[in-house]
Structure formats: structure tokens, C-alpha cells
# Entry
Amino acid sequence: MAGRAETRATGGAARVEAPLPSAAVRAALAGAGVALALLAQWALDRRLAPGIAGGASVTAAVAMGAASRPWRALSERMLGGGAPAPRLAWTARDAAALASLAVLGAAAFYRFAGNRFSALALATWLPGFAVLGMAAWPRGAARRALDALHRCWHDGGFRVRWRHLALLAAMALAAFLRLYRIGEVPLEMGCDLPHNYDNIRQILSGELPVFFPSHPGREGLFFYLAAPLAAVMGLSHTTIKVAAVLIGVLTVPLVYLLGRELCDREVGLVAACLLAVSHWHVILTRVGYRAAVLPPVLALLWLSLARATRTGGRTSYALAGLFLGSAFYTYNAAMVLPLLVVLLLLDEALAGGRRRLASHGPGLALLAVTAAWVLIPLARYAYDEPLQYTYRVATRLTDLEQPLPGDLLGTLGRNVGRALAMFTYEGDAVFTTNVAFLRQLGFVPAVGFVLGIGCCLWRWRDGGLALLSGLGVMLLPSILALAFPHEVPSAVRSIGALPAAMLLAALGLVQARRALGGALGTVAVEPIARRAGGALLAIGAALLLGGETRATYTAYFRDYVWQQPDHNYSISLEMARAIEAFGNAGGSYILTAPHWYDGNAVRVQLGRTPEEWDLELTELAPGEPPLDGRPGKVMVIVHQQDAAALDTLRAAFARSIVLPHAKYDGTPAFLAFYGER
# Structure
């Protein structure tokens, strides 16, 4: 009831919060916050007085925070509404499990030398999961599960509710936006995709590396998930993109479950819908980046940890450890996840669960042991090749590739500002990962994000710290690019912040709706009027979602395509066609430097391995092919402006011809030099 005092159990002692504002005051504050947020976002999009617009956003956040109330799931847990968590205790079974794991772990660590999932290594590593499963499996769990199924069956079976249908609709919409014209957009392969192709090919050929050292070091979970699809559909550029898209679609229900656990069903459903139509997520999944697998694993980790601290269940703690360890196999941004786990546990303690959390010591130990067990193969590689494993991170944090700026604190501060501004003002500038400089959130999510930030800051001890931690920690991989500050913000390195950003946006929108609707709830209205209001609300939500869908469709299929080199023209595909047309008549070469990044995409378009075709040239060297003087025919693909290379080739071959290859609009794409001795 509006205006009543909230009482919270804090380690057994009652604490009385200040009374909440009345419904009318809350509605007025929320209305002012929404209006200011809308106006500020409109001004930011048009670059109108960004400073003033930013101040308006802050004011909107404060107003919405003052109007907010504790959200349901957290209220149940922290205000004494939920059942007390059971106390966990060590047993003889646990001691035996730890002893066997110590022996198996030492053997597995030894066997994983060589960076390979060999049969002997797996034979010592996989049994440990059975041991962990027995330790985590609660007594009587099977019987309770069967009883629950029996009750569900006799009560009329599983009930399909409207929210389930809404979630399925969101997943269908997500699938459409990510699969429509997937073979055509993007048509050209970025610098990462050829390496993804090679890594998946390694798995299909039976090599099975733990860590992929190529370019310049790559975690392998995405490749192992994509390999079965490639085995069925054939390994291709499209297959890689489809694998990332399927993972992206499955992320939608996981965000719903996370939002339901942290807040409530409405917040979870809104967050899932926002993710389904997010251009940020659409772009990164359609490109086929391995980073696409980080958000679902992070959502599962967060969900398991939240349930573990709420219920004290061994299984939840073990699952949290499983997903924490698995996250390190997704993308290097996962290296910051231990910090997030610590902050989430701190949030639990601040919320009044210090004594209860202390009783969960065995569960936390189970989490740590499970995570460590999952990490054994990767830990062995990091032990054997520490420089290779940490190379990518080290290049951004240190002067390994580029000198660090003199003003480190100033650079760090500017990086923080740019990373936070990516959601509402200016996003990633890289044309492959974003519509250049477009904010990472849509208009409506950006407004909700500002309001959600205000709610969490105002009620940081009521669960706001958890959501803010999920956002801030997962922005660190982008913020800490100190040697390359021009790469901030990065849509790819910040992809772990995507679930938190969607939840914050959803929380802000839902809290605004509840605050504005609360004022109407104090007025006596006829049931028919209430139903009419609900129908209008549903229609409004559908229109807003439709508007976001249209905006994402336009941003991707028009703006994103238009900004691609030559408007999504695939020069690597045209080069591959020229090489295929030349066939086995002689040697085929591509002179890449200084005009093209590399020739890996061409090789992939050809469907060849490095052993089958690796004729990329960075320069024409005397005595080296094709200038080695051997008789026969050659074809060299040359940039149309590289006159010096053409002169060198003409001088080396008595008989030659140069044929231009044109783009779709008739402009030159490249030159094909054909020579014969």
C-alpha cells in the first residue's frame, strides 16, 4: 500500500525504512522523469546541447528513482517474504568427493599438456563431473521432482499462459531479425570470420584444441557449438553466422528467466522483448562473432547464483560454478566475471543476508571447486603458454603493441565516460560491429535505461547494486583498452553488459508504468474501464515494440548495409571466383599489402585450407614466387591503383594481359594480371 513503511529483516533484526511517497506523488515524479528522459534522448539524438540533455537525463533518473519501489522478487527475499534458506553442512560424502577430485584433477592437469582434448585427458577430466554431480545432487530431489510432475499432471497438465505466448512471439521476432537474408547481409567476411572458419575446420578434422592460438588467441566454446551445425550443413560463411544467430535467439528466454529471478515476470518479459529487437545484438550475432556465446552463459551464471543465494541449494551453487568456468571458454571479456561474482555476493550481504550467506560456506566452496574443475584444460594451457593466453588482454592494458598514454588517469576517465555514453549518445564507430556511432540502445530502451539507472541508484541496497554491478563490471573489457583508447566504446568487448542493460531498461519502463498506474489505482473505476485500460496498455506496448522493431530493421538492412564497403559488396567473393575460373592452369596469388587487410577471406570463400591455398603476398620479392623465373602460368590479383606492382609483373613475364574486374556499379574492383613464361 502506498505510503506505508517498509520493514526489512536484516540478519534477524528488523529495520524500518522511510515511508514511501504517496501514489499521487510517485505518479507525478514518474511522469516528470519520463518526460525529461524522452526530451533528453530526443536532444541527444540530434546533438542539441549534449551537456544540458545529459543534465536532464540525470534529473530524470533522480525523479524516477524517488518514485520507484522495491521490486517483487527482491522484496520477497529481503523483506522477509521468502522462506529461510537451509543451512548447508559438510558431510562425509563431500569429503570423499573432494579427495577423489584432488587425485583426478592432478591427473587431468597433467594429461592436458599439449593443448588438446585427447582421449586420455578426457578420461581423467570427465569423471570429475560425475563426482561433482553426486556432491551437488540434493537428497530426495528425484522423488520431489516426480511428485511435482504427478501433481502437475493431475491438476490439468502444463498451463500455457499469456506470458509464455508473448515470450515465444519475442523469440520468433528475434529469429526473423537475425535470420532474414542471413546469406546476403553481411556478404563480406570481416577479419575474424576466416579464423572462425579455420578453427571450426580444425574441430571437424579431429584436432580438438583447448585454446586456439590463431589471431592472436581465441577461446573455443563457440567453435565447438558451431561444429555440429557445420557438420550437417557444411562449413561456410553462412553456417558460422547461423550458429551465432541460433545462440542469440536462445539468449532471449534466458534473459527473461534472469529478469524474473532478479525482479519479476514483467521485467523479465520486457527485457526479453527489448533484447529480441536490439540492433546491438542483431548485428553482432549476424556477423558471427564468437563473443555471441558470452551473454547466454553469463545469464545462466547470474541466474544460478541468484537462486543459490536465495535458496541455498547445492545444485544451484554447482551450476553457478559450472557456468563461471564455462564462461572463460567463450570470450576474453569473461576474465572479469570473478569480480562480478564477488560484487553479487556483496549485494546479498548488504541486503541483509550476511548471516545467511555465511551459512552457505559449503555452497560457495562447491561453486569454487566446480569452476576450478571446469577450468582445468584452459588452466593447463595458460600455465604452459601464459604469454599467448593473455596476449590480447595485455596488448590493451600494457605497452606491448603501442605505448601507453602519458595521462593514464585522464585516459581511464575518458574511457569510462565514452563507455557509459554508448547506451544513449554515441556507440561503437566500427562499421562491422555497429551502425557507426549509433547508440547501442534503441530510443525506448535508452529512455528506460536512464530511468532504470535512477531506480537502482536510489535503491542500491534493495538489489540495485546487483544490476549496476552487472553493467559496470562487464564494461571493463572496453574501458581498460588504455593503449588503444580510440577503440572505446567497443560493442564486442562490452557484449557481456548486454543482459544488464536490457534489464535496466526494462526495470525503468516497468517502474514508470507502475508509478503512473498507481495513481489510477487509488481511484474507484468500473471493471469495464479497468479492462479497457489494460487493453490500451497492451496496444501501447505493442506499438512501442513495433516501433523499435521498425527502427532496428531500418538501422540494419538500410544503414548498416549502406555503410559496408561498397554497400555490402564482397570483394573476397569476387576474387575467389576469379581464382576458381583460373583453375589449375598455374599459381594464383593475391597481393594484399597495402590495399587489403589479408587474403584469408578469399581462401575461405574458396573452401580451402591453408595447406591447400596459401598464396597471399605482402610484397613482390625478387627470387620469390611469382618472380622466381620458373616457367608456367600465373595469375596475380592486384589493386587497381598499384601501378608499381603491375610494372614489376610486366617486366618479369614476356607474355601478359591485365583484365579489370568491375563491381556491381561498373567501378573497378581489382585487376587480374595473367602472365606466362
